[in-house]
Structures are given as C-alpha cells and as structure tokens.
Design a protein that fits this description.
By secondary structure, this protein is mainly β. The protein has two helices and eight strands; from the N terminus they run E-E-H-E-E-E-E-E-E-H. The strands form three sheets. Strands 1, 6, 7 and 8 form a four-stranded antiparallel beta sheet that branches. Strands 2-5 form a two-stranded antiparallel sheet. It is flat and about 70 Å long. About 6% of the residues have low confidence.
C-alpha cells in the first residue's frame, strides 16, 4: 500500500460456488439453533454513536423472546428457535446449495475481494450457510 499499487478507493467483490465431493442422497437432517448475526450488536452501537453525534436519542435493542409456561413447575421457559439443515455424511463441512428450482447439491463458496488494479485483498473458501456473516466482517473494512 505504501508504494501506491493498491487503491482502496474502489473495492470489488466476486464469488462462485464449487460442487463438493458429496453425494446428495447421503445426508442427515439436523435441527440447529438459529443464532443472531454477530454483527447485529456492532451495527446497533454504530447507529447509536451516529445518533448521539446528531443529538438524537439512542435506539434500544429489541429482544425477541418467546416464553412458554410450564404448568407442572410453574416456571417460564424460553423457547429456542431452530431450523432444519441437511448435513452431508461424506463431506460434513460443505453446505447444501439450491442451484435452481430443481437442482440441489452440496457445495462450497469461493470469494475474493480485489481493488481496481486487480490485486486480491482478501480471499476465502467457506460454507454457504455462513457466507453473509463472514463477508460483513472482512478485516479491512
């Protein structure tokens, strides 16, 4: 960067999918907990800092919890939101990808970030289901 080869004025992002070496029929259906995005708190803090600078009130964090009542013990139970995902038994690190209306497969995603001179600034290969969380946490932003 000190020699002027890398120009951070314009940054370009590109990605592609690569089919994993996994059979689509050899998989298990797993129920996983839906987690909040890791950048949610950072985004709220940034919004509140801007609002403070403009003399506005801070935005409160909204906590969406579903509570259930246990009639036997008389306690409130917090419900955990879950979702079902397909996990390959031959390649468990790959993610389940919908290529179109009918075609589905297990795949990885390859992404790269470049400047306008064509130099790669950041490149990674990751699961498809975690792509958004990783992209918003790139080290140079």
């Amino acid at each position: 960067m000190e020699y002027g080869f890398i120009d951070m004025e314009a940054v370009f992002y590109d990605g592609t999918h690569q089919k994993a070496n996994a059979n689509n029929r050899k998989c298990t259906d797993e129920e996983v907990e839906i987690e909040a995005k890791s950048y949610k708190d950072d985004l709220l803090n940034e919004i509140n800092n801007v609002r403070k600078a403009h003399g506005q009130k801070e935005v409160r964090q909204v906590i969406n919890e579903e509570l259930d009542f246990n009639e036997k013990t008389g306690e409130e139970i917090t419900k955990v939101k879950t979702k079902h995902i397909k996990v390959s038994t031959t390649d468990p690190e790959s993610g389940h990808y919908h290529k179109g209306e009918h075609e589905q497969c297990f795949a990885y995603t390859h992404n790269t970030v470049s400047d306008k001179n064509g130099f790669d600034l950041f490149s990674y290969r990751k699961l498809i289901r975690f792509l958004t969380d990783i992209f918003l946490r790139l080290p140079f932003w």
